[in-house]
Amino acid sequence: MGSLLRLAGLLFFCLFSPGLQAAELTAAEVRAALAHATAGQGADLSGKSLAGLDLQNLDFSKANLSGADLSGANLSNADLRGANLVSANLTDAKLVRVKLNFAWIMRANFTRADLSGAILETLVVSQGMETRSEEAAIFAGAKLAGARIMARFSLDDMRGADLSGIMASADMRNQSMGLIRADFSQANLEAAHFDNAFLAYAKFHFAKLQKADFRGADLSHADFTGAYLIGADFTGAKLAGTKFDGAVLTDAKGLRQ
Fold it and tell me: Coiled coil: which residue ranges (predicted)?
């Protein structure tokens, strides 16, 4: 069943990603580059297309992947701790975003990785329809400021992550197959930063959001049902239609009583 799901996912990716750039390196060449990285400094794979490669279980810790294309790559169990995945500015000043569209990230470790300005859309986060705790990725202390996000982070460890200014609002003009939105349900987002983020219609069911920072964020129609929001700060946030059914709001700031 798992192999069929993987095949279906890859087929969907190929059919609906016409702009996919072919990988510039083979998986073997990537492994060689990682193996020959200088001690204390990760491999330099900046600006490379690694699209569609099987990169499971590889050690990308501290690697430079700025401006890289990882669309459709299988990063399951990959170690990306401290990796540089920021958007690259080329000599012609063109902004090149790191792409993780349709990437497989089950059990991947992005602890303290820098994904500022990256694109994380339609990530593959489970073998089946539901996310399981043993498949959750880790983004503890990661920086995703300004990233473009439309994916599921259910059950992920995102403690202290910087998600300030992320663009994660649902596009209500394109919802013919049901509401497609960013989903942080049951994720551990304690002390995470969402200040000035765009999170309209985002889902935070039963998420752990103690001391989370939502100052100035657009939370229109976001759903915090059952979320733990002790000490969270909503000062200046847009809260039109926002749901807090069953949420724990002890000492939360910026909410009109």
Answer: none
Model confidence at 12, pLDDT cuts 50, 70, 90, reads very low
Within a 10 A sphere around the Cβ of 146, how many other Cβ atoms? 20
Of 118, 64, 120, give the one whose Cα is nearest residue 96. 118
Residue 26 CA from chain centroid, whole number: 25
Q: Count the neighbouring beta carbons within 10 Å of the beta carbon of residue 3.
A: 8
CA dist 26 and 93 (Å) reads 28
Question: If you search the block for the tokens 């430079």, which residue do you land on?
Answer: 64
For residue 216, what are the contacts with CB-CB under 8 A and spacing of at least 6? Answer: 195, 196, 235, 236, 237
Residues ≥6 apart with Cβ < 8 Å to 35? none
Radius of gyration of the chain (CA): 18
- The DSSP output letter for 200 is T
- Give pLDDT tens digits for 188-226: 999 999 999 999 999 999 999 999 999 999 999 999 999
Both structure tokens of 113: 């990785």
pLDDT > 90 in the chain, percent? 75
- pTM of the entire structure? 0.88
Please determine, for residue 65, whether its predicted confidence score (pLDDT) is greater than 80.
yes
C-beta separation of 42 from 65 below 8 A: no
| Rounded Cα–Cα distance for residues 94 and 87 (Å) | 10
Q: What tokens were used for 10?
A: 């890859």
The whole-angstrom distance between residue 21's C-alpha and the CA centroid of its chain comes to: 21
